Amino acid sequence: MGCLVMFELDQRIAEQLTQVSLGSSVQVRMSSSNAFAVTASTMIPLMQMFEMGGVYISASRGAVEIIQAFEAIGVDVSGIHFLDLVSSGVLGGTDVPYSNITFVDSPIMLESIMLRTLYTLRTVNNQRNFVFLDSVNALAIYNDDRMLAEYLHTFINTFRQREVLSVILNVPDQTPPLVLANLDTYCTDLVDRGQVVLL
Amino acid sequence: MQPTSVYTRDRCVTGIHGLDEILRGGIPYGSTVLAAGTCGSGKTTLGMEFLVRGALAGEACAHFTATEPSVKLLENIRQYAFFDMNMVDTGLINVFDMDVLYSWLGLEKASFDLDDVHALIKSIVDIVNTIGVTRLVIDSVTTLCYKIKSEQLIRDFLFTLGKKLATLGCTTILISEITSATENAHWSSFGVEEAIADGIIVMGDSERMGHLLRFLQVVKMRGTAHSRAKHAIELTPLGVMLIPMLKWGASNDNSSRWGA
Description:
heterodimer, A: alpha/beta, Rossmann fold, seven-stranded parallel sheet, 7 strands, globular, B: alpha/beta, two-stranded antiparallel sheet, 11 strands
C-alpha cells in the first residue's frame, strides 16, 4: 500500500490527441486487458499537457476503484468529477471518502447521467473540459441497443455544441454492432487500441 | 417582397434552464399556467425557482402555500443553491400561508360558498395589487379547491382569479396534484382547471426497469409555439434542468420492450 506502480504512457495516444479540438468526439477502442493503460494514456495528457478538467462517467467500475488506480500511478484526479453509475447497486457502495464523486442510481438512467454531467460542467471553473464515458460496452449490458445508439448520438452532439471534448471508451467486441456503427459514424476521431496483435 | 410581420406576445422569461427554450422564449405574459404533477415530480421546486428567477430580475413575487406551512416550505427549499433567504427577508418573494389568510378572512370552515370564494379572490387580488406582484404561485390549487364543493364554483373561482391576475399583468402558476401523468390522465383533480388555464405543464415519473425518471411536458400554452415533447428533468442545487427524453425510452409502458 502507498507505493507507486510503474506505468508507461502510450505516447502515440498523446501525439494523436494533439490533433483533436474542443468539440471533437474521440472514440477510444481498447481491449479488456489494456483498458486502464489506454484510459490513463488518454486522460493524463489531456489533464497535464492540455490542462483540461471535466467529468468522468464510470459505468464499468466504481469511481473509487478508478481514482485509486490513478493514485497508484501517482496521478492526482481530485480535480476531475466522477459520476459513478455502478456503486448505487452495491449495498454500502456509496459510502466513500471522496468528495468528487456523485452517484447515479443506475446505468439505465441515461438522461439523468446527461443532466448530472451538464450540471457538473456548470459548476466547474476549467477553461477547457472533457467528458469521459467509461464505457459504451458497460452501458450496453443494461440498455437496449436502439436506446444506447440514440443516447450516444445525443451525447456526442450535446458536448460538441458546448465545445466540450467527449472521449468515449469502448471494448468493441463487447458492443452491439448497431451501437458500434453509430460510434464510427458520429465520432470525429478514433484511438484504436482494441486489436490484439499476435506476433 | 417584405416578410409579413408576425405579432409576438411579450414573455415572462422563467429563467428555468431549458424551459424557456421549450416555450420559445418564456410564458406569454399574464398567463395562468397549470403545473400538474404527481407527488415528488418537482412541482414545488419548479414553482419556487420561477419566483426566484423573477426576484433576481427585480420582480415582486408571491407564493401562496396551502399544502405545507411556509416555514417548512422554506426549510425544504433552502437546500437549493439558487434560493437565497434574503429574497424573502427583503420582500422580493412574499410567502403566504393559506391557513393564515383563511383566518384573516374568517374562513376557517370546512367548505366555502359563493361569498367565501369571492372574498378569497378579492384578498389574493388585493395582495397582488398592493405589492405589485408580477409572478405568482399557488401551491396547490388542488388543496385550495377541496374546500369548494361545487364544480361550478371551482370553475368560477379559477376563471375569475385568472382573469383578474392577468389584468394586473401577473403571470401565475397554479400547482395541481394529480395521481397519474399518463396519456389518458386528466391534468387536474377537478376536471375544470385544465380548461381554464392558458397553459398546462405536466410533470410526472416515467418508470424504466424499476427506476423512476422525472419528466416534464408542456401540453398546452396559448400564445406561443412550443415543444410538446417529454423532457427528462433533474432537480439540481442550481435549479431544475431539462433535456429531451430519449425517444426509445420515453414511453411509460415499457413492459413489452423490457419484458418487465
